[in-house]
């Protein structure tokens, strides 16, 4: 977010405002301390729960829900947001029947995964026909919360203008195994071990998200982060940053960071980027062969 406000200031854009959605008070305070000079207080009776001014002189507001954000032209940016939302997992048994994965308690009162005894409302309502008909698919995973978010922002830009940019761990919908995992100290641990003490994540099913809105919006991607950054000119940016480095150590750290962003083993392949625009811009974007970062080749 600091990079965005810095870029807006350099572009001499002064009329915008920033609207963040955050459900955690602790994280909200961390964000405010990073972006603003002084702390603010929580407010009642407003759509937002807190407001302040950033160090770059932009009004900033915090909300509990996307629905509370003002209904007007907006640019929605989510970076490593959707992968943190709850996921819905499904498994097919040897007889071809689908079951939903639940969290339950075992005989020792420890959290464990279990399967529903039969089909559920979610298996009946969420599993696409092509997944059911492809008998090679034994597991499938989506996030209802991610789907809700994408529908919300798609509706907003359709009515009031704007666009959406999503950057996250994920796949194009072709992954056929479950991805829910947890990390503690950069080490993979069981997702149900010591709940609340680990970072839990699941790959975003961009194919599913795209299918929800591509009938009423223009969807570009998902494409790999390394391709997106290459089109956005990361090479030229690196040249400028390297030229400004004062020591060999600074250059070394910068090159290492860039490698993480672009490499297959790092974030370059695992991270995907997708953008959504109103259909009213179809003619303009077609003439430009797509928006920046998503130009057709």
From TrEMBL:
Main location: mitochondrion
GO cellular component, one term: mitochondrion
Domain of life: Eukaryota
Localization (cell): Mitochondrion
Keywords: Methyltransferase, Mitochondrion, Transferase
Coiled-coil residues: none
Gene Ontology biological process terms in this record: methylation; mitochondrial respiratory chain complex I assembly
Family matches, as InterPro entries: NDUFAF7, NDUFAF7_sf, SAM-dependent_MTases_sf
Catalytic activity: L-arginyl-[protein] + 2 S-adenosyl-L-methionine = N(omega),N(omega)'-dimethyl-L-arginyl-[protein] + 2 S-adenosyl-L-homocysteine + 2 H(+)
EC class (word): transferase
GO molecular function, a single term: protein-arginine omega-N symmetric methyltransferase activity
E.C. number(s) listed in UniProt: 2.1.1.320
Function, in words: Arginine methyltransferase involved in the assembly or stability of mitochondrial NADH:ubiquinone oxidoreductase complex (complex I).
Record family assignment: Belongs to the NDUFAF7 family.
Protein name: Protein arginine methyltransferase NDUFAF7
Taxonomic source organism: Litomosoides sigmodontis (Filarial nematode worm)
Lineage per the UniProt record: Eukaryota, Metazoa, Ecdysozoa, Nematoda, Chromadorea
